Amino acid sequence: MRILLVEDEKDLAETIRRGLVQEGFVVDVAHDGIDGAWLALENPYDVVVLDIMLPGKYGYQILKDIRAAKIWVPVLMLTAKDGEYDQTDAFDLGADDYLTKPFSFIVLVARLRALIRRGAPERPVTLVVGSLSLDPLRRTVNRGGTQVQVTPKEYAILHYLMRRHDEVVSKAEILDNVWDSAYEGSENVVEVYMGYLRRKLDVPFGTSTLCTVRGMGYSLVSDDS
Hints:
Elements: E1 2-6, H1 10-22, E2 26-30, H2 33-42, E3 47-51, H3 59-68, E4 75-79, H4 84-92, E5 97-100, H5 105-119, E6 127-129, E7 132-135, E8 140-143, E9 146-148, H6 152-163, H7 171-178, H8 188-201, E10 210-213, E11 217-220
Parallel strand pairs: 1-2, 1-3, 3-4, 4-5
Antiparallel strand pairs: 6-7, 7-8, 8-9, 10-11
Helix pairs in contact: 2-3, 6-8
């Protein structure tokens, strides 16, 4: 799940980013309204966290631009302001939720997950590929009715592969969608995590569904194939 965070307080933004990454989210960060607006209009996100008071362009204007472009991504407004008038403005412009600083990180995560569930009704509640299923609401993975414990990063990779099942996806595509934009390491980390997933999802069940396509990338196929 990919989040755009537009917040000009760099220390706060980094704290939020690190916390969300630990929760299994992929996070892009912008520190001003110009960059934030460009990212929101040019990239698909599951939710946008948007401060109101930003240099370059206010959060309200970014929100107006997003909705004018018919982009219906859920937006949570984040601000130091506290007043009924500000909340009314945000909701009138098309915001989906509103959180006032200081806030509880646990509350932020709960609000984001609620927005993601509410804002993507076209997605199936449970992703299923053969005997493998993933429940985004409970963040659980099952193979043939047996629950499999995975780490947040393994979950994020599997979630992406299940959404693209039977397609070949490159290491670069997986990195772009699962690791955050600050990652500067080797693409080989994808290979390492694919090994982890095979040992959990294929080897114990006698299946071979996480396939390496030599020179191209990886593909998740059904064990019913």
